[in-house]
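Co-fold these.
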Amino acid sequence: MNQESRLKSILEKGIFAVTAECGPPRGADPDAVLKKAGMLREKADSVNVTDNQTAIVRMSSLAACAILKQAGVDPVLQMVVRDRNRIALQSDILGASSLGIRNVLCLSGDHQSFGNQPKALGVFDLDSMQFLQAVRAMRDSGLILGGEALTKPPRLFIGAAANPFADPMDFRVTRLAKKISAGAEFIQTQCIYNMDRFRKWLQLARNRGLTERVYILGGVTPLKSAAMARYMKDRVAGMDVPQTIIKRMEGVPKERQREEGIRICVETIAELRELAGVKGVHVMAIEWEEAVGEILDRAGLLPRPSLD
Amino acid sequence: MPAKYMIHAGQTPDRFETVTKSGIIAWEEGCLKCAVCVKKRCVYRVYEKRGLDALQMVDSVDNQCMNCLRCVQGCPKELIHKSVSPEYKALGDEYWSAEIISKIWYQARTGKIPVSGAGYPGPFSGAGFDSMWTDMSEIVRPTRDGIHGREYISTAVDLGGTPRHLSFGIEGALEVPTPKVIDMPLPVLLRVPSVGRITPNLISGWAVAARRLGIFLALGNEHINAAPGTCLSSLMPVVEEESLKCSAYPGTKIMELIMREDTHRVAEMLKTIKEPEFISVRIPVSRGVDDRALALAKAGLSIIHLEGTDDGRFLDDPTKSIKDGIRSTHLRLVEAGLRDAVTLLASGGMAMAEHVPKSLICGADAVFVDIPILVALECRLCGRCGEGLPCPVKMDKAEPVWVARRVVNLMAAWHSQLLEVMGAMGIRDARRLRGEAGRAMFFEELDRSTFANLGKTEEGCELE
Amino acid sequence: MITAEQKPIEEIRHMIMPYKKILLLGCGSCVAECAAGGEKETAMLASALRMAAKMNREDTLIQEKNLDRQCVRDFIVQLDGIIHLYDAVLSLGCGAGVQAVAEIFPEVPVIPALNTEFLGQTKDQGLWLENCLGCGDCVLYYFGGVCPLARCSKQLMNGPCGGSRDGRCEVDPETPCAWQLIIENLTRTGGLERLESVFPPKDWSRKQGRGPRKIVREDQQR
Amino acid sequence: MTLKWRPVIAFFYCQNIPEGGWEERLAIEKKHKGAVRLFPIPCSGRIDGVHLLRALEEFADGAIVATCPPGGCLNFEGNLWARKRAETSRKLIKSIGLEGERILIVEGTAGKSLDLMGLAEGFLQKISLIGPSPVLYPKDMPPGTGVGFSLKGESVHDYC
Amino acid sequence: MNRERGFVFPEVIKTPSRFRNPIGKYRLNRSKGCISCGKCLETCTRDVHAMVKGKALVRNHYLCVGYDCENPCHQVCPVKALSLRRNPDFETMGDYRWSPDLLVSAWHMAEFGRPPEKGLEYRTGNSGGGFDKLRILFSNKLKDRVDCNSNGLEPDLAVELNRREDNAHRIRIEVPFYGGGMSYGSVSINTMLSRVKAAKALGTFCCTGEGGYPDELKPYDEHVITQVATGLFGVREETIQRVKIVEFKYAQGAKPGLGGHLLGDKVTPGVARMREAVVGYPLFSPFPFHSVYSVEDHKKHVDWIKAVNPRALVSVKVSTPTDVDMVAVGSYYAGAHIIHLDGSYGGTGAAPDIAKKNIAMPIEYAVPKVHRFLTEEGVRDKITVVASGGIRTPHDVVKIIALGADAVCTGTADLVALECIRCHNCESGRGCARGIATTDPELMDLVGLEWGAQRIINMFMAWRSEMIRILKKLSISSLKDLVGNTACISHIDYS
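Predicted complex below.
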């Protein structure tokens, strides 16, 4: 079993990295995970496993990561602070490392009110920033919160998310800087549709030298339809879908909208590759993992280089 | 001098939340719940006595309020406002005004004189009794230690006629018959009002009150049996001419005859009556009342009752007041030299204590009080009973004892007020008050004589 | 102040069902300020409960009384000699009041009629807003006078999250994003640099987890 | 005693509406002997939810509030608050299973007179259709034998 | 202005209400729709609106002149958020004599020192008779006459009080009014001091009433009239020697022939000490002076004062019976300098309603009667006639002087300047809820001394300026020329 993070290795080698996303099933069926693994293996360098995304109960991210790992995929364990207090979070970090999981993405998580457990207590004992810091300290200093030493520190490549499209704009880069100083080694961004704003954000990050301190992976999501574009614009928090994109999707007949979505996605990836400071792409094909291969192929990112 | 006349009054509470002028509109919405709320600062602790009477839908806050407006002026959110209560506005009518009604309630409740601070708030003058003022004496007054002092101001009057003079024989024996008079300690008689649903309880209470006051209650045939037997001597049955003969009430001292026709025939008829000893003859106050009264006096009748309308006017001329009827009758009798041969009683619109001395000054010997003895029982003069509607103060549930106490209280207050007026005038005997028009001031005369010769306006002049 | 809202009447009816004589106890303090348990609300609830009882032919006596404060013994003892005439007390006090009354009169069940909500501010007439968590360790200084724990949906101490949009919170667009306010305030009044470093995890032991918290002021004690 | 049920309504109205005079009041009382209990109020803003509830609790099958037209209140917003309070009370009675229609609030229309008699009759009719108030005539109890509606030891129907 | 002595009248200093929400005739409502654009603030010239922390609000309803406004804010409001109404609270205040308009006008004068310019009727009440039907008449002839005040001097309002020209003080009051008697006990010490302080500033006097002469008044001795009434409460030789004017009170207009009665509740320790009485027990002033049953007795009375204080002016306060003219003449012959007629509509701390309403005649009838009789007797020039009992406005003053008085006494008006609202409950509970006619220490403090004095000064300065305006308009240069000048007034029923 590979003991290193493939994602880390790719990024360190200066190769334009590719990550994809895998949502665990709403059931206890490991095959569903394996099926998605099959679709993404060889396509992406690493695969993120979401942690009860949009606050809907699914197979635990940690378990799904373990399955992926067994299937030969390099998983990125997403962990949200919504559902676990600092004790559970730290213990899961240790567990993940022990299972050979080598990437962790520290997140706040979608608010519980959006999902199917709106009556749940949101824990938010730590926030994502504090969590990053805690994981970094566990790994680098072998200390947990409060300063006690671990018998063996975890081995993890530590990531965080960033949303260049949320407000207040000016503070977004500050927050990126904070995440970096808290311990983030790679950043996966929110889906990019508004390239102008993304460039602006990137420029600010570059100005502060942040792009030199962290690997930024631009997030993309292929649109399935004009309706989805509109939905994402209006209903999904933190999402910025410009009118031009919606127009473009609406401009083609319904049956060809998927194709158009993929085309936009491919174009976006092409643009991202040209940007200084973007070190990779994170493809979040929501419940459409089969499209990932096509997108990456058309974007010229396949096949993935071998590290051996 | 008889034993001093005292009326023992005592607090007798209302049965219902009383209607007062005040209406408070207080909004809770937006209330800041200030640490020291203006409601807590209320000097009269009005807001502490809060309580909704679900039957009347009256909040006790309203009728306890004394209108200082401090809460209105102090609330930081200006959430409290005042308004005149609609129930108060609806009380009574133009003559029996809300003001009069609520003052009667107060007196019936407490037995006390209405007293207030600041000057008189009412209009300059008015119709009827309101167009006269009583006099005062600047330096002379009868008693040395106040009107309630040890020296006695007598409010007693006599019912019955007295001879113009007495004559004595050589031995000093009286040559004329001893005058037959009833001594009444107060120049007031009660009588059953013409309005309201009169129940046996009310009659019973009123009769008791009359007895305790030493005065009479005039009442119709139909009510006699409702009065307790012990009060018989305080009753004054009122009968129609035709039923006169068959309606002698043993034990009564006085009865009243409603006169319909020919004076002489009635006079003859009355001569046949032995019991009761005193008979009052009631005639309406209308045009020519003075002539009719004179005719009765000449025919030898000794008690004449002048009856005006319930709002104190002539029956046939609403522009004329009962006060004018009394005055002209009195003067006519004086002219004829017969004034002392008769007792003049007056009724109609006696609503306030001041109407008693004012009637006396105009020439009456005593007055009948009717509607106020009903209002004393919280009656609102709403007239609902007349329409077959339920009484808002459940008059039928009034207990006789309570009724009596309320009426005694009212009369106690009126008595005290009579003393005030007499005291101010320096008059010590109510009998002396009768016809003392020179000790009164009449608006029409005064106003004209004072103001008729001021500057005259002309075209183009300016008034300010 | 402490805010509260009346419970649904069905729930109240269910709770008082076993009792025949019930005293409704209003509170003139915080819950009166937020129009949940003051004199007026008590009168309304009492009337409604009496009606409900009559409708259902329940032979229930419901009477009302108001205390200035239900969380202080000196006010509660005013019930002495009264409370025993009842089978139960339905309290329109906050949770603190309910328990205080129950503690002083343990023989009578005390039932809450309100849901105690939060510590907050009267934002506008008829609008109350939570703005304090009562965490026992005030951090307002660091956050420009806006509490991220009480006012950020995710209690972020290093926010804002990616859902902040046009100054609004992703969870409820009616709610202003606390972090937007924090950043604005600190921009205005200086101190934005405080946000450059990562704010360490909160010490929640001051808030909960050790049983009821208490404050001891020896200088106030006798 | 006849057991036939006659609806009784409590009618609150602002004294400032032009039709709120004594004559109108007496006319309604005369026509509906006891069935319409009229409560003129200094301003509809004086109306409290408690007034409506207590009326329903004590004697009325329905309670109606008539206010001046929007913008016509002498106290500016009295009618606004009256409406809100009536609505709150309606919610409350609905929550105990009483028909919400037993509380009605009617606002005047600017420039149009408010026919109190008509309103009273309309509401009486509406209440007749809804039926006796289960508060005053609890289940299984024929109208006229209610026990729940006495105050200070006297039956309210003595008055009505 | 006093031409000889150069008397300087006090300054008017704006002195607003003690209460948070002063009551005016109108109310403005700002609905939720207000966008705080500030247009109303720009439009209003009367400081009705204010902007507080970016939110526009109506701060001073009471300054709004309502429908008389020349540029109404509610019409310029771009979102129609403002609406104007008569204030319903205003309608519940006052009575026939002191209409709400008069009350609010008096408050306005007490705050600003000038009559209200718009929106309020400040000249007459609604009693439907007497002053309220009398009008000052400016005849056409005045239009042709050369203005006798063209020399630039203001008409002279001063009144000489000693007209007997005996060896008593020559006293001139700079304004034709002084403060009527209100006893310590019926009003608070703060109220008393406010009145007397104002009297000093205005160059006039103020009477102690019959409740004694509190030490606090000592600094104002020169401006105090002390009263000798039947109860002789607090009357000592020393108090009579302290003052320049001594007033005998025979009767009071509100309760003529009845004497006085201070309820036990109002007999606080301070009052009891002053009156040499027992705390909590009611006090009666009997009626009449039992040593006075004739004019001769009366003369002895006056002589007694002259013996104690030879230079004192003696004023005799009587009410208005039918023979008031005889009483006045009797007083003159007894040696009085001032005959003070207190009409039946005067104020009181507490009196039976029956007395206030019915006994004795209104001052409007008494003054001409007395004036005529004294003139006929040939002694009108030898005695000063002071009228009181229902003088509410500068117009009332002008009218009563034109009917034959030389000057007036005020009482209720002073209290209204202190924000008396005429609720008539001076005697109930803890006394005046507004802290004016009370001895309750807590309520008393509601009226500050400086505040009270300035309010009274302001109001009377407004009266003064109004009277000067009227005299100028009447082309009268000295108030003396107005006395008994009945051509200057007209009664609307007989005009």
